[in-house]
Amino acid sequence: MVIKNSKELAKSQLRANALKIIEAGFAAMDTENVIKNSLKLYQNNLLIVKDTWLDLTKFRRVYLVGIGKAAFSAARAIEEILGDKITDGIVLDINGGLLKRSRSLVGTHPVPSQVNLSATREIISLLKSAAEDDLVVAIISGGGSALLCSPYKLSCEKKESVVGELIKNGANIEEINTVRKHLSEIKGGNFARLAYPASLVALIFSDVPGDDISVVASGPTVLDTTTVADASKIMAKYDVLKKCKLPHCDLIETPKDPTYFQLVINIVVANNQLALLGMAKKAKELKYKVEVFSSRLEGEATAVGKKLVLNAKPKTALLAAGETTVKVAGAGWGGRNQHLVLSALAQIQKSQVIISVDSDGIDHSRFAGALGDQATLTKAKRKKLEVSSFLETCDSFHFFQKVGDGIETGILGSNIADFMLVLAK
After folding, report:
1. What single Pfam family name could you report for this chain, choosing any that match (predicted)?
2. In a domain, 38, yes or no
3. Which of 270, 292, 325 is the last residue of a domain?
């Protein structure tokens, strides 16, 4: 079981069924299984990645470079498949451990540190050492934007204060990562530029609605179409420089020369469809009808939570996946999934339960997300907790901690954004 406190949460049959459906979503997106299903080594020299075939005899060296929250788990599985075909490698994740052919480096997230800066320098050095007869196998996953830190002129800390203001003021992931690209010397296609003229195959774990690979981890292996002007407009829109007390913010253009990308193959190996398919299968096994509200869910968490419960139907599992935003106010603590569920409580019916979770197991707290129903409201009333007060101060974590409906999974070694469920009798 991925959900560690499932037994404590499953106080009704409807809750138990909802948790089983969410568990199926977690199981379907297991990173090591994704890699084993996507990569094959045929006759010891032919690497097959989905529909792409690579003859390893054509390469002198094979490097493995991983970034993001799925990097370590994916690297461990890739090493099992490729073994001593891997010459060297570096894997930067929030989690780590022993790898046979690669160095496992642990960075900080969501706020980058000097550890991230040092690790990124090692990655840059390895990429620069790759020659035209080498192959770089890259793992690109969500969380990579913060883990990779090679700022153009600002320090990592000041750069992240800019990003923090964007997040705080409700900027979406496309806006945030557009700015990140133009503050960095490794994002926005620069990873590919550094690896050139080596061949590069990037295995992408998409945590972005619609699978825009130029946004995943700020698109390090993708030719970027955004410009310095785009980043400047976004910063002006959210008045970032003034709020960060910066006189100016030096931006850098991302590489536009298509030459750097001629030998790059980007392959999406996982996205939120995996979770939705797993959840749908389990819901049908439990005799519920299935409706997918959206696989590209975006918007303000408060509005989305209410909208989901209002669209739920009897005897139906309403599924959704994507990434919402929260405009932070007050000094509370929580994450977008907990905030979404807390918001939905104003509309929740007796016959419904709602769950929203982050696929990496970390919803800006030790909770992966939360569960909400009428029993949640009953416990809140008994403890004299006002839902509206916790919403106003963005303190969803402490609300669900007090009522006991936070979902705990620990770090999961995956990241394909968030998934949601409204289950109705």
Report:
1. MOFRL
2. no
3. 270
Q: Does 331 score more than 90 pLDDT?
A: no
317 has which bridge partners?
290, 423
Same domain, yes or no, for 229 and 300?
no
DSSP label of 60: S
For residues 307-315, give the mean pLDDT: 97
Domain residues for the domain of 74 are 43-270
400 with 295, same domain: the answer is yes
d(CA 104, CA 293): 39
Judge whether 228 lies within some domain: yes
- Tell which residue, 398, 338, 347, 408, has the closest CA to residue 374: 347
pLDDT in tens, 6-26: 999 999 999 999 999 999 999
Q: Are residues 70 and 158 in the same domain?
A: yes
DSSP calls for 143-170: THHHH---BSSS-HHHHHHHHHHHHHTT
Give the mean pLDDT of the chain: 96
Instruction: Please check whether residues 13 and 80 belong to one and the same domain.
Output: no
Distance CA 148, CA 112 (A): 8
Note whether residue 375 is domain-resident.
Answer: yes
H helices present in 221-300, as ranges: 228-237, 240-243, 272-285
pLDDT digit string, tens, across residues 354-371:
999 999 999 999 999 999
Indicate if the pLDDT at residue 248 is higher than 80.
no
Name the nearest CA neighbour of 390 among 401, 382, 404. 401
Q: What is the pLDDT of residue 330?
A: 84
Q: Model's pTM, two decimal places?
A: 0.93
